[in-house]
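Q: Here's a chain of 297 amino acids. Please give me its 3D structure as tokens.
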Amino acid sequence: MTADIIDGKAFAMGLREMVAQQTSQLKARHGLVPGLTVVIVGEDPASQIYVRNKGKIAAEMGFLSDTIRLAADTGQARLLEVIADLNGDPAVHGILVQLPLPAQIDEGAIILAIDPNKDVDGLHPINAGRLASGQNAMVPCTPLGCSMLLADRFGAGGMIGVRAVMVGRSNLVGKPMAQLLLAEHCTVTIAHSRTRDLPEICRQADILVAAVGRPEMLGADCIKPGAVVIDVGMNRIDAGDGKTRLAGDVDFQAAKEIAGAITPVPGGVGPMTIACLMVNTITAACWAGGIDAAWSK
């Protein structure tokens, strides 16, 4: 048996088309244009690429898109001033501060300063609390994308009672993903890199989500036959001859011979993350305008 490959890239393209259509409808019916502002501090090359891509796609969606670039030596007080201005700007519906931040800035303080209703990264503790208590919340983009891929795979009600294992416990992926699985009535176990007998626990999973940050950590002994595997990992590893390649947290070649379906790396979860940033921005705009948001959680 060879697993079905879950094409996150194709799904994300369809999702972006839907966002663009809804943006056109918001403009035509309500005169509302979603606004996304990304703030980046410093010149980290990877962050620069991410920010440029986010801005490009936001513009393609028909959003008002802006990027605020601050020097690497910017102090925390100055960044807090920028966030306060954006919180008070009615044309800005989504605020994203690109992480990581330079050492002189407390990331926690910056996250707390963002208006929770404009927190399109979904990292504010108020959004975490809303999600955990079943209220409308901004959900971090990566787990939101994973949940969409799973919903597409299982169909309405298809995850009820299913055993799910979340390997990873970060605020960005692991914890919110577990909450989303619970909301679908899965039976959820949260595991991590220090979990005892990790392969045995993983083999119980009908849904296995990996976000532990270690390349190909989960091998064939971690996969239940027929399981759906969502690999969030994005690790650059040595490919020989001075070259590198991207690898997930799951040993893809081994897992695809056992799993029922699996996301590849790249081309799986990655494209969904930026598409869901657009979803969160349009949701934030709808909240601000008192309009029912199609993807509100």
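Q: Can you summarize the key feature?
A: The two ends are 36 Å apart (CA to CA).
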